[in-house]
Amino acid sequence: MKKFIYKYLIIASLIFSAASCDLDINENPSFPTTADPTMLIPSGMAWSVSNLGVEVQLATSMWSQHYTQNNASNQYTSYDSYNITNTAFNRLWLHEYAGALTDLYDARSQSEKIGEWQYWITSQVLIAFDYHILNDLFGTIPFTQAVNFDEYKAPKFDDSKTVNAGIIDLLDKAIAKGTDAADKTSLEEKDLVYGGDISKWIEFAKTLKLKILMRDFDANKTTIQTMLNAGGFITEDARVNGFEDKENKSNPLYEYDRRKLNTKYNIKASATMIAYLSAYNDPRIEAYYETGDKGDFRGLPQGGYNIAQKIIAAGDVSRARLAATDPVYFMSVVESHFIQAEAYARLGDKTKAKTSYEAGVTAAFDRWGFADKAAAFLAGVYKFNDASTEDMIKSIIMQKWVASVRCQAWDAFFDINRTGYPELGTEYVTVQDLWTVPNSNYVVGKLTPSVNSVLSAGKYPKRFLLPKNSTDNNPNAPAVIPITDKMWWHK
Fold first, then answer.
1. Which of 147, 199, 323, 352 is the most buried (most CB within 10 A)?
2. Is 85 inside any structural domain?
3. What is the pTM of this model?
4. Averaged pLDDT, 168-178
């Protein structure tokens, strides 16, 4: 499979180095629409992986307080201070609509014409996933009129509920086509996720559907219960593997941050996560962060990039541990277990909630080679709290937050806004107590204000800012929505 990854994921090393363009989403700098679906699908995957693995992962890692900007460089200070302009996400928007979605729409259309339903399902599920990410980040996006270049020169923006309903419809149709695709020729190595196994794509579709239904649990309660009874969720991560420690062949974030920039020390550990992992002696701290010059794990206060090095030497702060071979996840088995655990908790089934929670924690430890440690934690500091529905949800989402470091930060960001966990705090981690226990007023496990936040007191980001390259070129774009505005599914 590697030769196909390298052929298509070279995009990942080029996208972020490309200059921003004032282009409408109806301009396609990608690939010719006459290409075969077996070429368009891996191309669409490559665009999706690059978008998700770099810009989305970077911003949400800082907004979930996994990472913070180094105090000896300044590449990501805008994310860390929430000082987001309307050009911040131009490339993400352009490369999704004119890159990933365009290729995937073309692949789906051509597959449907020739009855190649295995290609159609793969395209359909990836389209649904990309819309899910865009919808949950921006809150209102072109959907019903998107990527129809001939008919809609200025597509309308649909509200988030409309988009979610549309995504569910996409997934239902993909699931329904599973039988038709069973005896078709596989994409094999050109499927960078599941190697052409359509049964796994159907599991991916079901898991994503459950995730989106949970955005409006009360309205979807019956459907959620039916889905849980039926099962069929992912048993293998939906992720792209096969990266190597070679230029243009490595993980997109590693390629961009560690190989292409003039410094390799931009992304440092947030004191928020360091405090949590240290408080519970969690061994995953070794998988998430490197030790600093003093030989231990130390975090920088969130947004503390202008703290003088004479106070905190940059080398003493733990750097984020990234590897050239890190996969890029769409969804994971860990996430699936936690989604099911939360669903059972909200349904009042404590036994199944506990079982799914423990499966999630165990899989999260196993992901980094600590499977033998999970049982002790589940019997001790990470024991499931089923005293109330809210206690169960807090247990689940806190562990989901910890599990998302280095892999699925966007889900932590979504959950913070959706559930209120981790809670939004008002206390900073003080410099003098940085290396051991935070200041006496700080509660471990709460988010802290960014030291250099441009937002008013008590405010945290809730969404990405709609990009200039769409709002300037599309008369149907809404007025600018502040990044602090809640979405309808936020707590």
1. 147
2. yes
3. 0.93
4. 96
